[in-house]
Structures are given as C-alpha cells and as structure tokens.
Design a protein that fits this description.
By secondary structure, this protein is an alpha/beta fold. It is built from 14 helices and eleven strands. The protein has a seven-stranded mixed beta sheet, with helices on both faces. Strands 1-2-3-4 form a four-stranded antiparallel beta sheet. The two termini are about 40 Å apart. Bound molecules: zinc ion (ZN). The site of zinc ion has 7 residues, from loops.
Length: about 400
C-alpha cells in the first residue's frame, strides 16, 4: 500500500483514523505519475509499505499489512497468527494492541476460504471467467456502466467491492481514470500485492463488505459485480455498501437473476435447470467439506466437463483446465448463491433514495459477445432534490424496520 492510502482508510470497527507502523518498505521510481486520480509524489519517489501494521488507538487493535496489502478484517483468521509469528519482534513492541476480536458475519469464514481457493487457482490469467482484458473493458464500459463515450467527470474514486484477484479493478481504472479502492474478503489478494505494487492508483485491501474500512459517504461510485449474492443476505450486503456512496454519488451492482434459470426454454432450459438444481445439492456439501476433498471433487468435475467447456467459450485457444476449474469452483463451492428478481432489486435502490436508475445493456452484450446477457445489472444515482430528501428519510426509516426482521 502507498502511505497516501492512510488518508482514506479507517478502522473498520470504530471508523476512527489509523496510525502506520511500517516494518518493511520500498521506494518506487519511475512509476507512471500521469495516471489521473493518482496522488502526486513531490519527491518523485513513491513510498509503499510492504509489511507493517495499522493501529487503531481507540480500539487498541493492530491490522496487518502483508505483501503490500492491508488486512482490515474485524475478526481473527489463521493468517493473523502466522503474521504475528513472522513479525514476533515487532508485535512484541506493541503490548497494548491486540488482534481484532470481532465476529464474522454468518458464513464469512467459509466464503473467505472457498473464494481464496477459487482465485488462487486462476490468479492473473489472461482470461477472467470467459473474458480477455479487452472483453472486460467492453463489458464494464459498454454493457454494465454504459459509459458510451466517456465516464462522468465526477467519478474520481471508486470503491470496488469484490475484486477476485484484482483484474476488474485495473479495468475500472482504465475506463474511468479514477483511483480504485479494491476490497475483497479473499486472501488471493496477498498474491496480487507484489504484481500490482507499481500501480499506485489501485489499492488492494482485504476486508468484508459488511465492515469496509472507510468513512461513510466517501466514494463517487461504489461498484460490485457478481458478489453480493455470495453473502449470507444479499439485501443486507446491498444496504451495507450503499452507505459508502457520497451524496449525488452512484452505486452499481450486478447479481444473479432467478428468471435466467426459469425463463429459458427447450433443451438449454432443461440443462440450465438441471445444473441449477444439482448445484443446490452439491454446494452445501462442497462449501463445508475439507479443502482437499473440495479440490478433488472440483478436479473430477473439471476433467469430465472440460471438453464441453472449451467448445462453448469465447476464447477456446486461451481456455485451459485451470479456467474450467475456476469456473466450477465458482459454480459449486460458494456457501451462498442467492437468486433475485429485477423488481426486488429496483425496490432496494428506491428504498435507499436512489432516484435515477439505469439498466445494463443486453443488446450491447449480444453485439459484443454473440450471446444472451444474464443477471440483474443496475447503476443507480442518488440525486438530491427537495422531494427526494424528504421521501428518503421516511423510506430509510421503513428500511430499518424491514432489516430488523
Ligand atoms: Zn477502532
């Protein structure tokens, strides 16, 4: 992490400021300083922290920084113990500070484990799911955000929630020029740290979307593609990340749609339903199985179905067994894959006062990739009008009532 990120980061427990103790740091020269949105470096050298801790003096907690990536979880994991052993001397000098001792949200340990395995399988591959880097640019710019010519000039920072290995964040920066705060629960980000360290506009952070380490209302755009349905409660996840959108800011989410399972007809429809119902049986078992058993099961499925996968891919020449494995891990190993309808999601936005909603573009997706778009993709903006301020507060009161159940 760059030292400048401290200005933005907060303790995820109390939202207070943090103090940096660096154990090991690098100074980068010749970093591309022309990237829009990048903090200027007066000396021409950029200080980046390789190992260290961030201290909350109010909560008396230390948060690790490892492989350039701050780990801002409110709960303890086996990683914390390893980190404390590796840096035993430095940690001994912080006798009044502790490892975070909060509770994860339901299922978060499992979600963290399966997605870490999933993204460690793929890492920085040429393809992310079916898409090349160029495809991803087109997907995000033309299909999901529909920034046909240029991004809105008031999008200067983005909270990217759920980033896999970090490739999506790179693409978001490329199409917006904005500074990207890339938050993910999975530990594969520690592997991305060294690969992404010379990209000062891209800040990788391990953390939970239920406790993001930032001040509320501090982002121009909060962006989450294919993530929220993998939490214990998609709507709570939505409400949680919406808190970080500034007034007049934007919120984009894409999640799975139930109609994609049941609206398809013919043989494809039957296959879709068969795969869906089989996943309902297989996922609860594999998500709870020991890691080794899970890996063996996914390898067996991958070896059997790899030839079929290659035949239907956009880039068969680049698609390897690793990609098939990643795909089936995504399908069969997450603890949660909730399905929703468009009306439900539109109502979530309306309830939080987002009064300007735009849908993703199935037509552009078909033009680009020659197939049907699935899922629910909505870009919402909260525009401050006198009406909306009044109705927002009453709707938010209602939402709090709903969430309490
Ligand atoms: Zn704190």
């Amino acid at each position: 992490m760059t030292a400048g990120v401290l200005l933005k980061l907060r303790c995820p427990c109390c939202r207070g400021g943090l103090e940096l103790r660096a154990f090991a740091e690098d100074y980068l020269k010749g970093v591309d300083q022309d990237q829009p949105g990048t903090s200027p470096v007066p000396s021409g050298r950029l200080r980046i922290i390789r190992e260290g801790v961030l201290l909350c003096n109010r909560c008396r907690i230390w948060y690790p920084i490892a492989s350039y990536v701050p780990v801002m979880l409110v709960f303890q994991t086996p990683f914390h113990k390893t980190f404390a052993r590796t840096h035993a001397q430095e940690i001994a000098r912080l006798p009044n500070y502790n490892i975070p001792a909060g509770q994860p949200k339901p299922g978060e340990h499992s979600v963290q484990a399966t997605f870490t395995e999933q993204w460690n399988t793929l890492q920085n591959d040429d393809l992310s799911f079916s898409y090349s880097r160029e495809d991803l640019e087109n997907l995000h710019r033309k299909v999901l955000l529909k920034w046909s010519t240029a991004p809105p000039p008031d999008v200067r920072n983005i909270l990217n929630v759920g980033v896999g290995f970090g490739v999506e964040s790179e693409v978001l920066h490329k199409i917006s020029g904005a500074e990207i705060y890339a938050l993910d629960l999975n530990f594969s980000l520690l592997g991305s740290g060294p690969l992404f360290r010379e990209k000062p506009f891209l800040h990788l952070i391990v953390g939970s979307l239920f406790d993001p380490p930032f001040a509320e209302k501090s982002f121009d755009l909060v962006y989450s593609q294919g993530v929220l349905m993998h939490t214990y409660d998609t709507r709570q996840a939505f409400n949680s990340i919406a808190r970080f959108v500034r007034d007049d800011g934007r919120l984009f989410i894409w999640i799975d749609a139930i109609e994609d399972i049941f609206a398809r007809r013919g043989i494809r429809g039957l296959l879709t339903k068969a795969l869906y119902f089989s996943s309902l049986v297989v996922r609860p078992v594999l998500s709870r199985a020991p890691s080794l058993l899970r890996s063996v099961a996914i390898w067996v499925i991958s070896l059997l179905l790899h030839p079929l996968m290659v035949a239907r891919e956009l880039h068969p020449g680049k698609w390897s067994l690793k990609n098939t494995n990643h795909h089936f891990r995504d399908y069969f190993t997450p603890r949660y894959v909730h399905m929703h309808t468009f009306n439900e999601v539109v109502e979530w936005y309306e309830t939080l006062g987002f009064n300007d909603l735009r849908l993703h573009s199935p037509l552009m997706f078909r033009r680009l990739f020659g197939r049907s778009l699935f899922g629910i993709g909505i870009l919402g903006r909260r525009m401050a009008t006198e009406d909306s301020v009044e109705s927002r507060s009453s709707l938010q009161e209602e939402a709090v009532g709903v969430n309490a159940h």
